[in-house]
Each structure stands twice: as structure tokens, then as C-alpha cells.
Amino acid sequence: MENLDLQTLNQQIDSIDTKLVQLLNERACISLNIEKVKKEESSDDNENVHAPGREKQTFERIHRLNYGPLSSESLGAIYREIISASISLQKDVSIAYFGPLGSYTHQAAIERFGDGINYFPQPTISDVFDSVEKRRTTYGIVPFENSTYGSVVATLDKFISCKTHILAETYLRINHCLLSKSKFSSLNKVYSHPQGFGQCQKYLDMYLKEVQRVDALSTSKAAEIAASEPYSAAIASITCAELYGLDVLEKDIQDVKNNVTRFFILGSTSDKPSGDDKTFILFTVDHRQPGALCDALSIFKDHNINLTKIDSRPSLQQPWHYVFFIELQGHKEEGEVQKALNEINEFCLDIKILGSYPNQRPESLS
Ligand SMILES: O=C(O)C(=O)C[C@]1(C(=O)O)C=C[C@@H](O)C=C1
Questions:
Q1: Choice among 263, 264, 283, 347 that is catalytic
Q2: Do 286 and 360 belong together in one domain?
Q3: Probe ligand 1: pick from 29, 36, 38, 54, max atoms within 8 Å of CB?
Q4: Which pLDDT belongs to residue 270?
Q5: With a 6 A CB cut-off, is 162 part of the ligand 1 pocket?
Q6: pLDDT digits (tens, 9 = 90+) for 270-304
Q7: Where in the sequence is the domain holding 43, given as residue range(s)?
Q8: For the chain, is the Cβ count within 10 Å smaller at the N or the C terminus?
Q9: In terms of C-beta distances under 8 Å and separation of at least 24 residues, what long-range contacts does 128-132 make, across chains too?
């Protein structure tokens, strides 16, 4: 290869950077035009500044175009920040997350929205919903379900009364650590969120059977508490070790190696159909009627709609009365789903459509 002296190579990089800066600003100008069009189309100021369907398309496209030598991860990270900057240009976006700093929800938020956005930690999942509902932040992010331990009940329960919508889903691999300032042999307490304990049951039963388990509001709150109490440990992420000045006593203590949590991004509306969406609804049926739930669900079968999750929680209206949660394939504004959601009304006492969002489950996690 010719011209391999450093000075020439640096000049080549400079010339590419000149073009990149110009192109990035051209892209930014288009983003500002998109903002104008969006404002003309909608009266809701918050509506779809973050357009998850469009972002999914963009990421899929850049990965298809990439022949290297840049890795897919590097290119994805660069584009994450380009889009983050583009969002900030359109609107001063703020995101409430289930915190404090260093929680898995915080990490999922940064992976999803990049560094250019303002993040606001909330002590509880309910506070995240309230923050979006009262428009203190543009969006919120909450954990929804874990592949090992199942649904996050605080999120399901809040869906029953909330007025927010699901805008998007996002996934994060979860690797738990045992963190402490004390020696392993001196531990008498371990703090975590119930999900953290639930995902590490085998490790706890094998190595920390005699150590008292104490629930904390979140895994990062557990790390914060463990940092201030001698002989205490926390089950939390490796990020929390550095943030709260704790030592990593053990890594990867979750029962299942491939441990993943799904999060929901909450906003004031859902996105348009993207071609590969899911819809999440909740409903109640008359329990005194034999086959009431079966009748309601059969509507989806009749319309050839696949269900991807089913769950239930006490309704709190009367004992042994339940709210059912269903996630299904398709968008609420699309043909068969729209018809099914109209028909199911007849079989339900109450029904609430929580939102439609692009399917973002990574293939590696299917
Ligand atoms: O296409 C849009 O709706 C945009 O606002 C542009 C853009 C982008 O910069 O690519 C920015 C934010 C959205 O989340 C998706 C895409």
C-alpha cells in the first residue's frame, strides 16, 4: 500500500472528518425539519419525538450496510449517539428511570437513549409512572419481566391504574455480582431487590444460606445501603461496585447464564405500526360465568393472533377477582388486531389497551 507515512494518513483522516462533520450537520438539519412536520401533524408536544419503529429500521439498515472493519457493536454505539443528539435537537427530552444511579433500568435507559439525554432517577416504579403522567419528564422506563424470575409485579400493578402508554420495549442482559466492603466470611446481611434474590436463588442457598436476606427498593439502592453498613453485601450490577465503592466478591451469580430483563418505555402515546409490533392489554371478565376467560381468549384464536405473554394479578376490587394481562402479536391499529380488540369488549367487564410497540427482542435472546 502506498502513502503509509503517518502525516499522509492523518491528512486522509482529517479530510474524512471534514466530510463527516458536514454530513452529520446535514442530517441534523433534516432532523429539525422532521420536528416541524411532527409538530404540524400532532397537537401533543411529546408525541413521538422518540420514534421506536423508525429507529429500529435505521439500526437494521446500518447493520445490513456494514461490511467492516467496524464491528456491529461499534457502529451501533456511534449511531446511538447520533440519534440521541438528533432527539435532543428536536426537543429537550427527559427520562425518569427506576433508580438510583447504576440500576439495571438506568443501564437499559442509557443503552436505549445514549448519553445526550437528561435522566432522572426515581425511588420506585410507581414514581416513574407518575413522572410521565404528570409530564414532569417526557418518558419513563421501568422493568417489566425477567427471563428467569418472571414478571415485575410492581409494574403490572401500576398498569391497572396508570394513564400512560407503552411506547417501546428494550432488553438488557443481566449479570449479577455479590458486592461488599467486608470479607465474604464476615457477612451477616445481603440486600437486593426481590428480583435480584429470585434470580440468584441457587447461589444464595449454596453459599449464603445463613446470611439474612433483606429486600431493598432496587438493586442499586441495595448497593448504596451495603456501602454504608459493615458486614453487609448487595446483589447488584458490576457498575454499582465502582459507583458505590464496593468490592466485587463474586461475579455472575445468577442461576441462569442467559439472564435477560425486558423493560418498557412509557410515554403519552404509542408509535405508528412498524410491520412487526406487539400490543399489551389488560382486562377483567365475570368470574361467575364458566368459560368467561376462555371465551375472551378465543377471539384472538379466531383472528389468528398469536399471544406472546399471559399474566394475572389480584384486581383489588374484591377478593379472588383478577386482572388478566395479555401481550399479542400485531398493532392495535392494524386489521385483525383492531377487529379482535373490538370484539373482545363484549366478553370483558373492563378492557384497557396499554400500547403497541415494535418487537425489539434481539435474535440472540429469542
Ligand atoms: O424519523 C424520525 O422520526 C426522527 O425524528 C429522526 C430520528 C433520527 O435521527 O434518525 C430521530 C429520533 C427518532 O427516534 C427516530 C429517528
A1: 263
A2: yes
A3: 54
A4: 86
A5: no
A6: 889 999 999 999 999 988 888 999 999 999 999 99
A7: 17-90
A8: N
A9: 128/96, 128/97, 128/98, 128/266, 129/158, 129/162, 129/164, 129/266, 131/96, 132/96, 132/164, 132/266, 132/267, 132/268
Q: Is residue 23 part of a domain?
A: yes
- What is the reported pLDDT for 3? 60
CA 95 vs. chain centroid, Å, equals 12
ipTM attached to this prediction:
0.96
For position 67, which CATH number holds? 1.20.59.10
- Is 324 a catalytic site residue? no
Q: Check residue 40 and give its pLDDT.
A: 87
Q: Is 263 a catalytic residue?
A: yes
Which residues in the chain land under pLDDT 50? none
pTM of the model: 0.94
51 lines ligand 1 (CB under 6 A): yes
pLDDT digits (tens, 9 = 90+) for 37-63: 988 887 776 567 899 999 999 999 999
Structural domain total, the chain = 4
H-helix or E-strand spanning residue 213: strand 212-215
3-class secondary structure, 172:
strand
Q: Check which CATH number belongs to the domain holding 132 and give it.
A: 3.40.190.10
